[in-house]
Amino acid sequence: MSGPHLHRNVFLIAVVVYLITAWNSSGFHSADEHFQIITFAQWKLGELPAEHLPWEFAAEIRSSFQPWVAVAIFKVAELAGIHDPFTQAFLLRAFTALLALFAMRRFIQVVMVQFPLAEQRSFILLSYALWFIPFISVRFSSEGWSAILLLRTIAALLSPGSKTRNGAIAGLFAGIAMLCRPPVALIILTLVAWSRLVRRDPPKVVVNMLVAASGVLLVGVLLDTAFYGHFTPAIWNYFSLGLAGDPAHRFDELPWYYYPPWIVKYAIPPIGAVILLAFVLVSWKRPSHMIVWCAFPYIVVHSLIAHKELRFLYPLAFLVPWLLLEAWRIAKTITTSLSVLYVLQVILAVFNGVGVAVVITSSAGEGRVRLAEVLHREVAPGDRIGYVVPTALLWRIELPAFYAPSGVEQVVIEPSTPSQGMEELDFLVVQDGTPIPNGQNVLLPLTRTEPHWSTTLMRWYTWGEGQPPWTLYRVTR
Question: CA angle at residue 275 from 105 to 338, to 5 degrees?
């Protein structure tokens, strides 16, 4: 089967798989995915008071672009008679999945012509099925959208045809990517430098790209001004606060070398190790490659910043299949033991298959929204939901206002005194391994934050450091 025919068939399968992933991947991967987008949209719709929003709202450092998108989707959903929060949130993820799929489709069309037929097939399959890509592709988050738009930027820059026109199109996508996540500006600048210094594009290409991106950023200021109600350059505020720092909000600080071991660990060790080795190999043998120019400065700068999270590297995630194929081509020229490479392929495929199975079927983050879906069917007005958790850690599992059933009370049951208040509860949420003295009560398990079959896999994945799953019980007397 030719590359384009295979691509068409794989794309159609990917549409189904990604929509299933969007449905099952309920909730949010990081707090920012919910509290800096959906809660902002709730405020704009008059559903949530400003005092319930995170501090970033008062600081006006969050671009309003994605909250506006959420507002539009929620309004369309309401007009269509869709009122429950779970379906509305699914629409955000499904819309994101479709954007990602069409961005990947265009990117693959442009890049795969560099490879012979056999490698084209591998590139197509990797691009859609590398285990973490479906997960990131359904995240209505700043990192997910910036990754999608960066992919579209690169596809436009590499597309055949008029380079000046392509530069302007790339600039439009680049500007939107920066609205979603401002630090992506560093990748955009290195792309501009690559275009001019490596590919030797005419100056007009660079000018068109920068002008188009600047125009989008100006539109972003207008959107922010309309959102916040007064002149608000949110991206400027973001960088100003980032450079000056904010002593009122301290984040965890980690050493500069944390990202490489994180990549090995959290991309699943065999796969993560190969990704890291592939990047070293391509950087060594082909230092002028676009991937090296995009990734190296971005990773170095983020390594120098004390506050680190793996999700900050997600904008580069969709480039990993291209990186792996380039490394494969280099490896074949420097080793005669091709059988070792093929055995490695099989091992990686097995681990990747397990990872895909987990991300397609699991909820995101702590999985609390899986509990909320059941609660919406089971609760009655006036019911009380208790969380057996230290008050300082309640944020890990408490249901946000968007998902919480109306007319119910959420209370904290301290693990040190779990018997206090038990007699007044109708539902109980407990983390696995936490003892519960139920007294005269009967606890009926209703659902868990993750399927039983994936619990062991998730424990292996986090090397035992992840949080155990939570179980929702009905309390009967």
Answer: 95
Average pLDDT, the chain: 90
Beta bridge partners of 412: 387
Res. 442: pLDDT tops 90: no
pLDDT tens digits along 273-284 = 999 999 999 999
Q: Which of 134, 143, 141 is CA-nearest to residue 355?
A: 134
| Residue among 329, 332, 349 nearest 340 (CA) | 332
Give residue 323's Cα distance to chain centre: 20
What contacts 24+ positions apart, CB below 8 Å, involve 380-384?
Answer: 380/426, 381/406, 381/407, 381/408, 382/407, 382/408, 382/409, 383/407, 383/408, 383/409, 383/426, 383/427, 384/408, 384/409, 384/410, 384/411, 384/424, 384/425, 384/426, 384/427
**Looking at beta carbons, which pairs linking 196-199 to residues 24 or more positions away fall under 8 Å?**
198/288, 198/290, 198/293
- E-strand ranges in 83-161 read none
pTM for the full predicted model:
0.93
146-193 residue pLDDT tens = 999 999 999 999 999 889 999 999 999 999 999 999 999 999 999 999
* Average pLDDT estimate for 39-57: 94
Question: CB-side exposure of 44: number of CA atoms within 13 Å?
Answer: 26
Distance CA 467, CA 397 (A): 11
CA distance 106 to 155: 6
DSSP string for residues in 305-329: SS---GGGGGGGGGGHHHHHHHHHH
* Joined tokens for residue 291: 């991937």
The total number of residues written for the chain in this structure: 477
d(CA 158, CA 151): 11
Distances (CA, A) of 448 to 64, 266, 362, 363: 34, 23, 11, 11
Query: Could you tell me how far CA 150 lies from the centroid of its own chain?
Result: 14
User: What is the C-alpha separation between 152 and 404, in angstroms, rounded?
Assistant: 36
Q: Please report, for residues 3, 293, 431, the alpha-carbon distance to residue 108 in angstroms, rounded to integers and kept in the order given.
A: 10, 19, 43
